[in-house]
Amino acid sequence: MERYESDSDGDEQQKPLLRRKQEGKIQRAPACCSSRYSLALLSSYGFFVVYSLRVNLSVAMVDMLNNTHQSSDNHSGLVCASHDDPIQPKHNQSANVYNWDSATQGWILGSFFYGYILTQIPGGYLASRCGAKWLMGFGILGTALFTLLTPLAADLGAGYLIAVRVLEGIGEGVTFPAMYTMWGAWAPPLERSRLLTISYIGAQLGTVVALPLSGEICFYLGWPYVFYLFGAVGSVWFFLWAFFVFDSPNSHPRISEQERLYIINSLKNELSHSAGYIPWRAIVTSIPLLAIVVAHFSYNWTFYTLLTLLPTYMSDILGFSIQQNGFLSALPYVGCALMAVLSGQVADYLRETCLYPTVIVRKSFSLIGMIGPAVFLVAAGYTGCNYSLAVTFLTLSSALGGVSASGFNINHLDIAPSYAGILLGITNTFATIPGMVGPVIARALTQNNTIEEWQTVFYIAAGINVFGALFYTLFGRGNVQPWAVHTSYPHGD
Q1: What burial letters (b/e) apply to 257-291, b meaning 16+ CB within 10 Å?
Q2: Which of 9, 159, 176, 240 is 20 to 30 A from 94 in CA distance terms?
Q3: pLDDT tens digits, 214-237
Q4: Contact 123, 421 (CB under 8 A)
Q5: Least confident interval from 121-130, 240-249, 281-290, 354-363
């Protein structure tokens, strides 16, 4: 009981802000055409690029493999009948194909995350010291350039492809810590859920667009064009980012004075006043941060299992072709994107209008966004060859996961806005481990591609998800931690 009382007391940080706002001391700047919402939209485009570059290999992999070799691995008595496409133009099969076994496929799909994990904490640190704008910009640009080299690397051998994917991961590893650092300076507390869900919906949209579009590109042009086209889209984003984005409201030459003052005044009691000081010992021993780490790790196990292996499941178990595969694999992320945006609106409404404590909102949304997906993921494994029900359950699982976007996912900014990028780097380091080992373990467990083997994969992911949700519920917090604010006046006053 004492712990929950301290959570409520800590959440008093919202009440002074609300009182000042009601008294007219902080005048909210309009959202329409504002710099902060323009940043949200352009960063959303950036994360669209990030995830489209990340997931396109999952679909292309189906077409990169020697189908004759792969068919010998299938046990037709234990998997669903294939779905024939309607009559349509001949599939372009002029591109090279490769005889990679299941283990090699798992390493290729997971290799991205070996680079991704290396730049999480350095990314948060560099963003706070050197500026988030250029760090994120060059990180995504580098990923786009290596994407363009993917077909060449695949021709040279699986080892070269793994190396290129590792380098792509290094480039993308700085993006989320850099963006969290930027939002620490740009997002007013009572607009955080809205702004961040708009920003990160790009990740879901990138998945939604890249999966089906990759299937179409594979069918009509050949799998190498998947990497050429998405790499080009990423390069275009960089030039827009370089021209329109700035690290803080004070450095933006075109922001209105009303909006600048609104953002600066709303954040003044939440940001550290000790320039250059990073309380590393307090950060690494913080229980609220540990709660986010566990939740983030657990959620990502399910997320990355589906992200990297759903096209394989659609092909090997449900029997969908390369074209059908892309569209059906994208459906879960349509639901996830919609729920993420809706949850952001509801979360900020509950905090601002209904005056619910931040900690209650974050924990409630995390429980829904983690236990819900676990239930439907397990259920999907028991649908057999009922294709409609399987796709429905997988879609519901991913859609409910979008609710967590307003739960633990934003909690870094609640407990330490000045160090949000560093905190995100720490949590995302651990949360990247599922992307590294999840595909390898899943492919090792599904060598015969039976429904029973995939049920085991889904049970493991669901169990980890439930554990993370319960741990975060016990130890999560919603208030700015004392070590995150260095001031001479009482916190919250």
Answers
A1: eebbebbbbbbebbbbeeeeebbeeebeebebbbb
A2: 159
A3: 888 888 888 899 999 999 999 999
A4: yes
A5: 121-130
Query: What is the 3 state secondary structure string of the chain?
Result: CHHHHHHHHHHHHHHHHHHHHHCCCCCCCCCCCCHHHHHHHHHHHHHHHHHHHHHHHHHHHHHHECHHHHHCCCCCCCCCCCCCCCCCCCCCCCCCCECCCHHHHHHHHHHHHHHHHHHHHHHHHHHHHHCHHHHHHHHHHHHHHHHHCHHHHHHHCHHHHHHHHHHHHHHHCCHHHHHHHHHHHHCCHHHHHHHHHHHHHHHHHHHHHHHHHHHHHHHHCCCHHHHHHHHHHHHHHHHHHHHHCCCCHHHCCCCCHHHHHHHHHHHCCCCCCCCCCCCHHHHHCCHHHHHHHHHHHHHHHHHHHHHHHHHHHHHHCCCCCHHHHHHHHHHHHHHHHHHHHHHHHHHHHHHHCCCCCHHHHHHHHHHHHHHHHHHHHHHHCCCCCCHHHHHHHHHHHHHHHHHHHHCHHHHHHHHCHHHHHHHHHHHHHHHHHHHHHHHHHHHHHCCCCCHHHHHHHHHHHHHHHHHHHHHHHHHCCCCCCHHHCCCCCCCCC
Q: How many CA atoms lie within 13 A of 219 on its CB side?
A: 17
Mean pLDDT computed over 350-357 = 86
pLDDT at residue 22 above 50? Answer: no
Separation of alpha carbons 50 and 32, rounded Å: 26
| Least trusted range by pLDDT, from 26-35, 140-149, 453-462 | 26-35
| pTM as predicted | 0.73
What is the token pair recorded at 39?
């940043």
pLDDT, one tens digit per residue, over 375-409 is 998 998 888 777 788 888 888 988 899 899 889 98
Q: Is residue 412 a contact partner of residue 423, using CB atoms and an 8 Å limit?
A: yes
Give the closest residue to 180 by CA, choosing from 120, 112, 261: 120
Kindly tell me if the per-residue pLDDT of 78 is higher than 60: no
Q: How does residue 160 score in pLDDT terms, banded at 50, 70 and 90?
A: very high
Amino acid 19: pLDDT = 45
Contact indicator for 391, 311 with CB cutoff of 8 Å = no
First to last CA, the chain: 25
